[in-house]
Structures are given as C-alpha cells and as structure tokens.
Automatic annotation (TrEMBL):
Keywords: Hydrolase, Manganese, Metal-binding
Cofactor(s) this protein requires: Mn(2+)
Protein family (similarity comment): Belongs to the arginase family. Agmatinase subfamily.
Record keyword Cytoplasm present: no
Sites where the protein binds Mn(2+): 110, 133, 135, 137, 217, 219
Entry-linked NCBIfam families: agmatinase (TIGR01230)
MF terms (GO), sorted A to Z: agmatinase activity; metal ion binding
Protein source organism: Desulfatibacillum aliphaticivorans
Biological process (GO), any one: putrescine biosynthetic process from arginine, via agmatine
Protein name according to UniProt: Arginase
Cofactor, how bound (note): Binds 2 manganese ions per subunit.
PROSITE patterns associated with the record: ARGINASE_1 (PS01053), ARGINASE_2 (PS51409)
Amino acid sequence: MRPHFVPFGGGEVPETDLESSRIVVLPLPYEANPSYGEGSQDGPYHILDASTQMEAVDEETGQEWTDLKIHTCRPPSISPEPEKAVLEIEAAAKAILDKGKRLLSLGGDHAVTIGTARAAAKAYPGMGILQIDAHMDLRNSWNGSKFNHACVMRRLAGDDKIPSVAVGIRSFSAEERDFARQTGHQVFLAHGIDPKDDEWIDQVVSLLPENVYLTLDLDGLDPSVIPGTGTPEPGGLSYRQALDLIRGLGARRNVVAADINELAVIPHTHVSEYTAARLAQKIFVYCFG
C-alpha cells in the first residue's frame, strides 16, 4: 500500500517554504515498462515515509541536518507516455533550479533522470554526471522507447554529450559495452573496486568537472544492503563504499543536484526504504550542506 504524502523528515524538519529553502526535494512517482520487478512508481512515497523515522543529528558530522532549510514539493502530475513524461519532469526540475536551489529528486524509475539532469545541465553548462548503478543504461532503445530507464545514459552522455562517470557497474549488454568502448565512456566496474583501498574514489572524482549531478540508482548498492529494487544485481557497492564516494564527491566538487531512484519495496521489511532515506540525508549533509 502506498503511504500518504509527507514532507521529508516529517515533524523533525522545520517547515520551510520554497522561496526560503536551500534544498528542495521533488518526488517523481513515475514508472514505465520496467525490465523486471515493478513498484518504483511508489518509491518516492516510501522514502519520504521512512525519512520520518530518522533522528535529527547526522552521526558522522554531529550536524543537525534538519536545520538545512529543506522544502518538499508535492508530486507533480506526470504523463504515462515516456517522451512526454521526460519533458514534464524537466520542466518541474527547471522551475526549482532556476531559483538557485539544490535539488534532490526521488524516483520513480531511472528514466526520471533524463529530465532532471537535462534541466541541471542547462542551468549549469559544462556540468558532469556521476552515476552509481549496477547497469550502464546505455541502450539506444528498450521496451519500445528511447526514454526507458535502460536508456538514461545513452540520452545524457550519448545524445547530450554530458561528461559522465559510471560506478558500480556489473551488468550490461554487448551493445552497451561496444558503445562505451567506442565513445570512451568512463566506467568503474564493481569487481575492479578494491574494498580495502579508497584510491578509486579519487580517480572517480578527478574525472568529473567542477559542477556535478549525482544520480543514484539503488541497485548500484549490493542487494544485501538494498534488496528492494527492481533488478537487484549481486556484487554491488557496500553502504560504506557508497557513503565514502558521496562524501568524497561533496568535498571536492560542487554537487548542483541529485536523484535517488528505483526503490521497489518488499512487504514486511523497511530496510530498503530506510537506507534510501538515510542516503538522501547523507547527500544533504555532504553535498548540499
């Protein structure tokens, strides 16, 4: 059952209107033609609901993240037609970014990123993208659409020529492999990341320009951390690896916007949505704070 809409953090976060806010949360309950598991359309509601259970103090920094002037928008109406949905999502993100706010979008399936990242790229020319994901998302078309979740980075890094780095990849087609090789698309495969050495984080960040958009597909983390996602792939990033990457990115680059997507909750357990909410809180602290 879909939870009712609540603002991020619930009663823990002081009410802040859009104009006075620093950070804006944009729920995007959109899903079209999923590849495997379904349910990401309700993901934003579950993340928001889980966020109400978090304490106000970030345990690593001691900062009260609830004081960061966070405003949560009501979910916009989104067309079920993929190409039209992308345009509507881009317009919703643009209205926020044009006000100079830091934007965190909550999907929905990964196709929402086509719209939000395009809006950010127009607001911040020369921007790059850091993609945390199990999949390359470099297919030219999938399930009858070029605006499917499996085509996100083909549209952004391919068509739009946005410099991008993908981390945690461990599942891809021959088409995607060949496209990455031919274009020099930067990919850090999950099996090549040393769990005992964080030098790879420096390498990832060094490949990105000053302004960065962070897209976090929850299947980029290992299913032992987040089992509730549409296509769980074994061998992903640990929670601490993902957190170290987010911290390193925020320390060395200007993160202008971000998204978290592809939550598909599992009944009778809250670990996936709560972890997603905690990752959002960490983005606030390390990238937007």
